[in-house]
Amino acid sequence: MPTVLFVYGTLKRGEPAHRLIADQTFLGPAVTAPRYRLADLGPFPGLVRDDTAGLAVSGELWEVSDCCRDELDDFEGCPALYTRERIDVAEVDAPVEAYFYVRPVPRRARTGPAWPFPSTREGGG
């Protein structure tokens, strides 16, 4: 049975790892319930729960085959770096899963509701 995944980082359309799900079924853009946030981990984000000051995180919904899901688990480093768990997505009653970051978020990491994060560089470029 296919899995519906909420993707929020490098797996999204136009991002570097999208090739891993490009042949799966795109269901559309999505926003989570305001219980999460993304942490800036450099070249990729990490989704974490934040029951106190959570944000509605933006991403995409994809229906993926069991084979693709298993390959994504390997790519995401499950369960050492990420775990795949249920997530609450606004206006979606069906079960949805996402990859949650399991390591401690670096103390000074930026956080926000969408990735990529805006550049912090001053000036143009």
CATH architecture: Roll
Instruction: Tell me the fraction of residues in β-strands, as a range.
Output: 25-35%
Our measurement of the CA-to-CA distance between the termini, rounded to an integer number of angstroms, reads: 46 Å
User: CATH homologous superfamily, by name?
Assistant: Gamma-glutamyl cyclotransferase-like
Shape: globular
Biggest sheet character: 3 strands, antiparallel
**Strand order, largest beta sheet:** 1-5-2
CATH fold category name: Hypothetical upf0131 protein ytfp
Total count of domains: 1
What secondary-structure arrangement, pairings included, does this model have?
Layout: E1 3-7, E2 25-31, E3 36-40, E4 45-49, E5 58-64, H1 66-75, E6 82-86, E7 97-101, E8 111-112
Antiparallel strand pairs: 1-5, 2-5, 3-4, 3-8, 6-7
Description of the molecule:
With 125 residues, the protein is mostly beta strands. It has one domain: Gamma-glutamyl cyclotransferase-like (Hypothetical upf0131 protein ytfp, Roll), CATH 3.10.490. It is 8% helix and 33% strand. A hairpin with a 4-residue loop joins strand 3 and strand 4. The longest helix is centred in the middle third of the chain and has 10 residues, at 66-75. Residues 121-125 have low confidence and may be disordered.
Please summarize what this structure is:
With 125 residues, the protein is mostly beta strands. The protein is 8% helix and 33% strand. It has one domain: Gamma-glutamyl cyclotransferase-like (Hypothetical upf0131 protein ytfp), CATH 3.10.490.10.
